[in-house]
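Protocol step 4 of 6: structure prediction from sequence.
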Amino acid sequence: MTKTLTLHRADTRGHADHGWLDTWHTFSFAEYHDPSRVHFGTLRVLNDDTVAPGMGFGTHPHDNMEIVSIPLEGDLEHKDSMGHVQVIHQGDVQVMSAGTGITHSERARDHDKPVRFLQIWVIPRERNVAPRYDQMTLPAGPDNALMTIISPDANDGGLWMHQDAWFQLGRFAGPERLTYAPRRPGNGVYAFLIEGDATIAGQDLHRRDGMGIEGEAAIDIRIGPKGGQLLLIDVPMALN
């Protein structure tokens, strides 16, 4: 497979400020549409959301999508039609299989602090599964290594989803060099630099830059001198 890098600088993302919601879209979403940026393999949505204190998304439906939320700051309150009422804190990860259909709402729990979180959608390998919800609290960081937070296997050390996808999160206190190999033949890796500076597959990345990597058997990662936070999303490139 030919090596391909697809670079998405932070300031080229779609952007909307609704007052209660300031949101950046790596891929086409809502009113933002770019035919060259609809998805990366089965990775369909990567939204970088800031929700104003006490505000949020009213009850709305989803189906046939794997939905991941990663709070970066503040507390996100979740309610859904399965009966879950949960608060997701910074340092937590949430995964939800919409499957045959669910409704849910999300809001900033506190009335004096915003909540900032990543909302990520992955197209599942099978449709119309039973809806489900799960979340976990990550070990306190930084850990200066990549940690599996989501995979296809509940025994792989994190949460699981209905797709041959692996989410790796790295929190680094200082410079670090490491190598990542896609976990499944034919998968590509989308690197999203949450904080800091890094050089990945020879390309310099900065805060909130993203890059899709295809055809690379071993991805060289160099974290900058001030450390940072990196999310790798390892997904099938063929849509089901």
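Step 5 (inspection) to follow. The chain has one domain: 4-236.
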